[in-house]
Design a protein that fits this description.
mainly beta, four-stranded antiparallel beta sheet, five-stranded antiparallel beta sheet, 171 residues
């Protein structure tokens, strides 16, 4: 029996900003939302692989994830997931202590530079923060041996726990 994957990403921000005046209240209220559904497959706007984990990065260290050799235990077996194209990436910093900041660091050898647009890029994810990146059509390519290392750096003095989900394609 073949496996299938259905993926839905939703995120948004809603606001209501009020200014109470003498005789009235001015209100600026709106929302920005994003929703993405990826069908099973390897073409644009599709994904056929998912990898997820809860991980810990000790103080002052790195967690290097090889996007072409992600291992996971599922249904009692260990499987290796090989991502050729990354469609979505979501990282949630579980820690709630100020200063416990994770960084996506692409300055590592063979770093996944498409995430930051260059070999020296860093994206911070603060305490209790979440980062969601999607590229359903163009994707964030992962080429084995050249741009496939996703480094998560912890420069704080505490261990940081984070959740991560990556969807992509096998071809």
């Amino acid at each position: 029996m073949a496996d299938t994957l259905a993926t839905t990403i939703t995120c948004g921000t809603a606001w209501s900003f009020q200014d109470a005046l003498d005789r009235s209240t001015v209100i600026d209220a709106d929302a920005l939302s994003y929703s993405l559904t990826l069908a099973d497959g390897t073409s644009a706007s599709q994904a056929d692989k998912v990898w997820h984990d809860r991980r810990t990065v000790t103080a002052g260290s790195n967690d290097d994830l090889d996007l072409n050799a992600l291992t996971n235990s599922i249904f009692g077996s260990t499987v290796t997931i090989n991502l050729v194209k990354v469609r979505t990436l979501q990282i949630k910093n579980i820690n709630t202590t100020a200063g416990d900041i994770l960084k996506i660091d692409t300055s590592v050898a063979n770093g996944c530079v498409a995430l930051t647009g260059g070999a020296s890029g860093k994206i911070p994810i603060g305490a209790n923060g979440c980062l969601t990146l999607t590229s359903p059509i163009d994707s964030l390519a992962s080429a084995n041996g050249s741009t496939d290392i996703l480094r998560i750096t912890n420069t704080s003095g505490n261990s940081i726990v984070y959740d991560i989900v990556i969807t992509g394609t096998s071809a």
